[in-house]
Amino acid sequence: MSREPVLERLPAPVAERVQRVSAAPPAAGGRHVLYWMHHAVRGHENPALDAGLLAAATLELPLLVYQGLGGDHRFNSDRHHTFILEGARAARAELAGRGIEHLFWLGDDPARPSPLTALAAEAALVVTEDFPAPPFPRWTAALAARTPAPVWAVDAACVVPMRLVERPFDRAYRFRDAIRGLLAERLERSWAEVDELPPPLDKSRLPFEDVDLAGADLAELVARCPIDHTVGPVAHTRGGGAAGYERWRRFLQTRLASYAARRNDAAADGVSRLSPYLHHGQVSPLRIAREAAAAGGKGAEKFLDELIVWRELAHNLCCHRHHEVESLAVLPEWARYTLADHAGDPREVRSWETLARGRTGDRLWDLCQASLVRHGELHNNVRMTWGKALPGWTADPERALETLIDLNHRFALDGSDPNSYGGLLWCLGLFDRPFAPERPVLGAVRPRPTAAHARRLDLDRYARRVLAPATERPLEVAVVGAGLSGLVAARTLADHGHRVRVFDKGRGVGGRASTRRAGGWRFDHGAQYLTVRDRRFGRWVDSWRRDGLVAEWRGRIAAIRSPGSQTGEAGGVDGGDLDAGSLDAGDLDAGTRDEPRRGGPTKRFVGVPGMSAVCRHLAADLEVVLETEVGELRRVADRWDLATADGADLGRYDAVVASAPAPQTAALLAAAAPALAGRAAAVEMLPCWAVMAAFETPLELGFDGAFIHGSPLSWVARDASKHGRPAGETWVLHGSPEWSRRHLELGREEAAERLLAAFSEAVGARPPAPLHLDAHRWRFALPPTPLPEPCLFEPGSGLAACGDWCGGPRIEGAFLSGCAAAGRLLALRPGPAQPVLFADPGDPG
């Protein structure tokens, strides 16, 4: 077979949808035709699939249908991963029914690159979908640039192929007029499926292991991925064409006729809720449009206007201006100017967390955000009001757009769609006209106050819908331990609508991120500071900085070799990179050393006014039962009974999260879950003696914190140098793990005196007699070798365990472990709830 271009073989309805990203002829020596499937995840009415089938048959080569999930997409989460995996499982079964092989790669290891480039390098031709929203235009262009084979991008998302509309449009009525003739001949056209099959695929040479989607535990696959586990799956919106078409069938039969009259009432069930399925291409917009047109009537007419005019207007925008849709440059000139003119107007700036959790105090807006967080959807009519509030709550128009994109794409199942960009940018003036008179912040951009919208909406009815969890009933969850990992797990579960109770044997929350008060002094005697390495944690730290919960500690940090060190080196301050991998207690919730390193200083953050501030904040709206030690965990039927050691009943729960240190978790789980208990028992946790000392006069030592080598001490810090601390000369001294273990049973007074003497020796100066001197023994302070998993979980029982002894050390590790534990429980979906509400397939008109 000649390896000439095969476009002429394609039927006109397919050929008109093909964009030749690179126009070379099919590569000689190619082993297959590669179809990179990502946003047309279906085996029917799929122009990209048909182009691949015909090209492969023409070239007499196998067709390799490849779908991957991983990479560095900024909004990867359990919610999106689960929906995509469910859709892929359904698509695989559908393709198998047609005799077509579907292969899936899951990127659960950030260090392992995607096999896409390797597969493309062996292809004679690469076919993919023409999906115009970021980051796919950039990814497609990059693949074409490094692939010798030609790359075709095929429009499988629009009824009117987007490339036939050769310029962008700024208003819906103009776009409607422009496509009228193109639409008429395509709207009712039936799609002729390609029935040619290429030669069979030899899978023995694949550069990756195909995921067994049919037999895999999808929740387990998702849990292995380093993604955002605080955004859970949505039980009532499962992925796959069958689920999407069942939703469409119900709407077509019961609500399409009344759509025009009911579509704007967010408290009613009047919309299709097809957006997630259209975004991922799990249902065909060609079929949906054809069947709606056949139904006829005012409801169908309005639905088609949303589905085709408004939805495809957004595709038109992204097609022609995809490089600008995340900037204000894409707005009309009048909108850019008016927003710039009002950029300095006073605003009530809210932090990311306040917005993401729906804690602004504006009832309608907070309910809208709850809809996004719990259900992954937002009714289109309230989304317009929700979006227009954000410019007044962010620092400037640029931050407003950034926040709109973040909140929508992170939580909405149809996030990152061209339609999303169209709707979000409409809130800032896109596809609209100026409105007089000008108002603060928005200027001439159309206003839409939440108070006015709330007056025309049954808020109580809307609240009942959106505040319900996405599952048939809320989970009852007990969290044992009110340290950071337990509290973030509890908060995540509560924000998704589940009922959570936290137990802790202490008098306050925080665990090792605690602050001790004595007289007028305050000491961070546990965790000393936190650092950020993972952007999942960094997002929260940035928000806490905005809210004043944490601040950067810019204290002078040194490394000291004690004169008593076995190295024989002289004592004193050393700013070098000293033994950066060894253990110390500088970051007590950490377990790894954060000494000064080459390549720039480490940023360290502290809680304000103490390290316990973050934990108190996380616990603020949770039910926390203090001074209560859980002593017994017993399985009764399919639930867990909790009791104190003396038998006092603590309630019955669907699920339990154990977040105590590993040895304590092992003891608690020993009878109820011996396998999990064994894993926890294998984790060593080193002790740490912490000394709290206050002096009348400053110690002029030339540093505010220091790592100590060759001494009974491993870390010392001048607590008063941290942001928000009271005046005074307060110091915290941490004993080394080795010394603390040898002297674990010392009395507090003796431990304090010995470590104070070691401090004098290490710094080469005797401090004055302390005004206050005390010690605290952390029996389980540091995990030198945490488990590789971010948390432990027992499938089928609803039992999870987390802490800094799982996944990775440091405060960051404890936080991410708590997120992972919450994610495992959010994946427990005990029966779907009744459908809730929500999004139209089109954008606001």
In brief:
With 845 residues, the chain is of the alpha/beta class.
Describe it for me?
This protein has 28 helices and 26 strands. By secondary structure, it is an alpha/beta fold. The protein has a seven-stranded mixed sheet. A six-stranded mixed sheet has the order 1-6-5-2-3-4, with helices on both faces. Helix 12 packs across helix 18 (418-426), helix 17 (397-411) packs antiparallel against helix 18 (418-426) and helix 21 runs parallel beside helix 28. The two termini are 52 Å apart. Residues 566-599 and 831-840 have low confidence and may be disordered.
Brief descriptors of the model:
globular, 28 helices, 845 residues, 16% strand, single chain, 6-stranded mixed β-sheet, alpha/beta
> Strand arrangement, largest sheet?
13-12-21-22-23-20-24
Q: Please, how many helices?
A: 28
Specify Rg, calculated over alpha carbons: 30 Å
Strand content: 15-25%
Low-confidence parts, pLDDT < 50 over ≥5 residues? 566-599, 831-840
Q: Helix- and strand-based class?
A: alpha/beta
* Anisotropy-based shape: globular
Average pLDDT number: 92
Number of strands: 26
Largest sheet: 7 strands, mixed
Distance between the termini: 52 Å
- Level of helix content? 25-40%
